[in-house]
Amino acid sequence: MFRQQEEESIxxxxxxxxxxxxxxxxxxxxYPTRYRMxxxxxxxxxxxxxxxxxxxxxxxxxxxxxxTIPLWLPVIETNISSLSDIVFKSVIAxxxxxxxxxxxxxxxxxxxxxxxxxxxxxxxxxxxxSYNEAYIERIADVMKRACVEHGNVQER
Length: 156
Fold this sequence. Notes:
Elements: E1 10-13, E2 17-20, E3 23-26, E4 33-36, E5 40-48, H1 53-67, H2 69-78, H3 82-108, E6 112-119, E7 124-130, H4 133-150
Antiparallel strand pairs: 1-2, 2-3, 3-4, 5-6, 6-7
Helix pairs in contact: 1-3, 2-3
């Protein structure tokens, strides 16, 4: 009639991950992604390179705005009004600010580290990602050890 549930032993638990001897749950507590220990065949850590395209686009925009400065010089020389001077200085400021933001973005963007899980049905999934490499390293290590002890993963 009623199937009796076996007790699970918690091996590791934090806000995002819960590892027991039967399953791994990753994600929010309301709707976590669950993997049965018996379905996991391989656990690895990988790195996703940083996406620098946004910073590069902003740098190009800043250079393009600064490149228009020679076009403004005849206007400034013939029309010495405070409005044209303000517009000219605003164009320079906009170009310099865009260039600075783009350079800052390119230099500070970080790679994302991920825990990859290969399942028995041949699928490979990104189970967890973070910019904190030490955290991902720790979670991947705990998952590997748990899967070796309680699942199908062979120690490599």
